Amino acid sequence: MSTTPPRGPKKPFRPFSKPGKPFKGRGGRVLREAAPEFETGTVLLYGWHTVSEALKNRGRRIRLLLATENAAKRLDEEGIAHEATIVPVREIDKRLAATPDAVHQGLFAEADALDAPDIEDMPAEGVLLLLDQITDPHNVGAIVRSAAAFGVKAIVTTNRHSPEATGVLAKSASGGLEHVPFVTVQNLARAMATLRDQGFQIIGLDSEGEEDLDAVKLRAPVALVLGAEGKGLRQLTRETCDVLARIDMPGAIKSLNVSNAAALSLYAVTTRLGLRR
């Protein structure tokens, strides 16, 4: 009599190890098409600064961590707690095959998206950045990095027409995602009105602005609004600002890449408000 050999133990199921089609939910969380038992999806993180900062963030839940031997050794040497699966570099390359030229430095993670406050719950202090349909993940990532450096309290984006806080954006942010909350809203103009009611001064950055940013009479808290490259601020966004300010430049080129404009304006505003002391 033949018998069916017993099945071996099931391999642990690793949810969302293959990127699915994302859609955004409330509070900046990233939701994905998935098996019914998993309500939320993961974000993909790679690169030394991005992953190491995520590992140091107690609020970030890591679902899967892959590391090469050298990267795991460096984590140990720097005292960063981890539970990495040691893999050859080609395994991480395979995970990032859809991201050409991804520089992962031997680290790859899948993690829960971070929770974020609602716009109504934002404390009336410091500086916020509002992004008006800036869709390039490299630019947004660079903005996040500058925001983390200058102590920005949160970045506000719309549910639509903004990149996911994952992959290329996270790598460009160089760990900044762990320090600056993302707040997503349905309507940016409505969010600006809410912030004004909470005491924020709303300053739109525009190369055609009527005032030089250095001449604007500032009062904290401040919300700086940045528009997409080329298109700039949308008409309703412009009309909802308290003031439209430009950054005067002495050279032949009078406009900056949006991420550079963000860094320069943050330097100017935090210096004048005494927030860098």
Automatic annotation (TrEMBL):
The keyword Methyltransferase applies. The keyword Methyltransferase applies. GO terms for cellular component: cytosol. InterPro entries: Alpha/beta_knot_MTases (IPR029028), Ribosomal_eL30-like_sf (IPR029064), rRNA_MeTrfase_TrmH (IPR004441), SpoU_MeTrfase (IPR001537), SpoU_subst-bd (IPR013123), tRNA_m1G_MTases_N (IPR029026). One of its GO terms (biological process) is RNA processing. Pfam families: SpoU_methylase, SpoU_sub_bind. Residues 1-27 are annotated as: Disordered. One of its GO terms (molecular function) is RNA methyltransferase activity. SUPFAM superfamilies: alpha/beta knot (SSF75217), L30e-like (SSF55315). It comes from the Bacteria. Residues 44-117 form the RNA 2-O ribose methyltransferase substrate binding domain. Keywords: Methyltransferase, Transferase. Belongs to the class IV-like SAM-binding methyltransferase superfamily. RNA methyltransferase TrmH family. This is 23S rRNA (Guanosine2251-2'-O)-methyltransferase. It comes from Phreatobacter oligotrophus.
